[in-house]
Every structure is written in structure tokens, then in C-alpha cells.
Amino acid sequence: MKKFLTLLLIIAIVLTGCSQNAAIIEEEAYTAVEVETLKSMELFIENIMTAKVFADKDVFVIPLMAGKVEKINVKVGDKVQKDDVLFVMDKDDISKQVKQAYTAYEAAKAGYDVNESQIQSAKDNFEKVKKLYEEGAIPETQYEQAKLAASDEALEAAKMGVEQARVAYENAASMLDNAQVKAPISGVISSVNIVEGEYATSSNPPITIVDSDSITIEFGVPGNLVNKINQSDTVTVEIGAAEYKKEAIINSVSSSADLMTNLYNVSIVLENDGLIKPGMFAKVYLNTDRTEKTLAVKTEAVKEKDDIKYVFVAEVDAAVEKVVTTGLDTGMYIEIKSGLTEGDKVIVKGQDYITDGSKIKVVRGE
Q: What is the three-class DSSP state of 259?
């Protein structure tokens, strides 16, 4: 009896194991897949460009002529209005320069008068020499020398020198009335390159003002992209340092490439909220190759063999291979031009482990 019971227990265990193995075998006969319902969508290529922020207006403020700075009224970061006094020149120093300029002007006029008298004498002499030359009394070389001395070229040069000296004198004289150097525009002081008592010159602008109301974003695009963007196109600008991310409009697209970079310059003008500073870096998101209402699947769903592209479609519990023709590839989605119908259940995960006709089980997807 004990042997009989033991035998029954062994048979039960064996039968239980067999049924479990059968279930496992049956379960392993299916491949779990994820599907996505094919539908129409808008496709585009997103191009991320690196750009730099520039002041929309960047003005160098310099005095009419070099001179000592007596007082500076601003510092970097100050907001100024048009015609605010930025710095004051030393009038005593300007007066000295006015006198020097006047002296140079008078000397130039005197030099012109001397030249004019000398040339008139040379002209009178030339008429005599010319007559003698025509009579054969003197050689040609002497004639040419007299002709050259009578030329008005030297007088014209002296006249130009007088005009330059006159302009310099008038500029120096006007400095007395413009000893207070004013802001030509409203904005923010971006640099002060002078200290009180130092000489201000045009070679090193003492003060720079930037327009704080608007800024310009500039970046370059390659030749294969420039014809895909246009003035007035909408883009997204992101400036991390200013916590700024908004849509903007392209202001201009250059028609010729930069000789150094071989890129075409694109600019965008933004209203400044006060946080955006010249010199910051930005990202510009450009959407090109836009295609509306087209069928598309995830790029990884499309497989290729012998230059033929295909996808697997879930039909009941089987995978069906379908040859497709593709179009625009955005990197995430790829356009399907033919081979599929809207509403098809395209296998987007698990497709690497099946073949045409494989048994499948949809575990995720629409």
C-alpha cells in the first residue's frame, strides 16, 4: 500500500511538471512586442545653432579732440539718458590747444602767401624763358625746369594745408563750447576707459554706451541650410544665463558668406528685459524641412535588408512584414510614403527578434 501511494505521488509530481513545462513552452512561443498606431503628423528637422548676444546699438563716446579729463560723472552699469553729461574736459588744457591750432593755422596761411608769391614770380620768369626757348636761345632742360617751377601743384598743396589747419582750429575752438561731453543715446555704460586727469583720445574711446532696450542675437549657418530659412521665420531662442526662452522672429539672413568662416550670418533682434547682457551665449532652435499631415513611424521601427526597407505590423497575434518607401527622417520619426495605411499597428519594440509570420503578444502600445 505504501509503495502504491508513493507511486501515485511520483506520477502527480511528474504530471504537474509536465503541465508547467507545457505552459512555459506555450508562453515562449510568443514574442512580446510594443506597437504604435500609424497616424498622420507634422514632421520637421530641428537644428540647434549656437549664437552670441550683441548690443543692438554700441556707441563709442569720444571728445572732438584729445584733452585732459577733469571730471567723470558715470561708472560701468549706470543707465544714462540722451544728452546726459558723461565727463568734462579741462578747459585750460583746451585753451592751450586752441592757441596751438590757431598758430598752426596762421603759419599755414603765411606759407600759402609765400608760395603764391614765389609761384607768381616763377610764372613771370617762365614767360621770359618760353620766349627765349622758342627763339632757340636756351636748351629744353632749362625750359622744362622753368615750366615745373611755375606749376600750381605746390600752391594747391599749400591751399589744402591751410584748409586742414583751419578745420583743426575750428574744432579746437568748438571744444570750449563742448567741454561737457554728453551721451549721444540713452543706454547703459558698458565701459569707462579713462580716469580723471588722464588724456582722452579717439584711439581709445573713453566711454562706451550700449542700448539697453533691445539686443541682437547673431549666428552663422552653412550653405546647405541658408536657403531653408527666411527673414520673418519663427524660431525659439534660449539664453541660459538670463533664464530666457521665447519665440522670436528672424530679422535678417545674409546673402553672402563670411570670408573667414564661410557661414551665412543670421540676426535676431530681441526686446531686452534687463537680464540679457551683451556677450552672453544663446541657443537658437530652427525648424526646417517642415512636412504637414504625413504618415510617420519611429525611426527604429524601420529595418533594412538588401537596400529594401520594411516594418512589421501586428495583425491579431502575428507579425506581418511590409515593404515601405520612406521620406524625411528627423532622427526620431521617419516619413512613410507608401506601404502602410493609417491605423496600422506598427511594431516599434521587439522587432529585432521576429520575422514575417512570427507569433507575437502586444504588451504595450496603442
A: coil
